[in-house]
């Protein structure tokens, strides 16, 4: 799993040396849910994200779409995924295009950014997910 800086409440009390810096980072595994705001749209929509040892999946209940995430990289603070829509694909009459997702753990929350291109137009959405 990716290396994330621990949240302040997850860090043990420092005892002089660099031991606290080696504290285990919080995991991204779990079921997350929240709303995404799409830039240029007034209507947020729900997102459910599941991350576990087998992989990651998205579900957009308001849009009747699901997707599969493939982890393509990570940095100290972020994990990057490519999302392939498996139900409700835009190119098959549905409402959801493939895209990319970047997530970052913020304490008990997960910050999420989505980026894609739909019919030559750049689409960006963002939101904060909470653990279910």
Structure description:
The chain has 132 residues and is mostly beta strands. It has no helices and 8 strands. It has an 8-stranded antiparallel beta barrel. The two termini are 20 Å apart. The relative contact order is 0.20.
Please identify the structural class as seen in this structure.
mainly beta
Sequence of strands across the biggest β-sheet: 1-2-3-4-5-6-7-8
Number of helices: 0
Can you summarize the main beta sheet? Answer: 8 strands, antiparallel, barrel
Helix percentage: under 10%
- Average of per-residue pLDDT values: 86
Query: If you compute it from the alpha carbons, what radius of gyration comes out, rounded to the nearest whole angstrom?
Result: 16 Å
Q: Which outline best applies?
A: globular
How much of the sequence is in beta strands?
over 45%
Q: How far apart lie the N and C ends?
A: 20 Å
**What's the count of strands?**
8
Please mark out the parts with pLDDT under 50 across 5 or more consecutive residues, or reply none: 1-23
Secondary-structure element sequence? EEEEEEEE
Key phrases:
132 residues; 0% helix; disordered N terminus; mainly beta; globular
């Amino acid at each position: 799993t990716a290396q994330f800086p621990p949240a302040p409440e997850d860090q043990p009390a420092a005892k002089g040396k660099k031991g606290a810096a080696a504290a285990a980072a919080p995991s991204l595994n779990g079921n997350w849910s929240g709303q995404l705001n799409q830039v240029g749209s007034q209507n947020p929509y729900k997102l459910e994200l599941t991350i576990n040892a087998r992989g990651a999946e998205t579900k957009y209940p308001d849009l009747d779409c699901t997707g599969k995430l493939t982890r393509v990289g990570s940095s100290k603070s972020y994990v990057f995924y490519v999302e392939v829509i498996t139900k409700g694909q835009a190119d098959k009459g549905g409402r959801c295009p493939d895209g990319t997702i970047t997530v970052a753990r913020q304490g008990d929350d997960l910050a999420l950014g989505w980026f894609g291109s739909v019919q030559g137009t750049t689409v960006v959405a963002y939101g904060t997910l909470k653990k279910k």
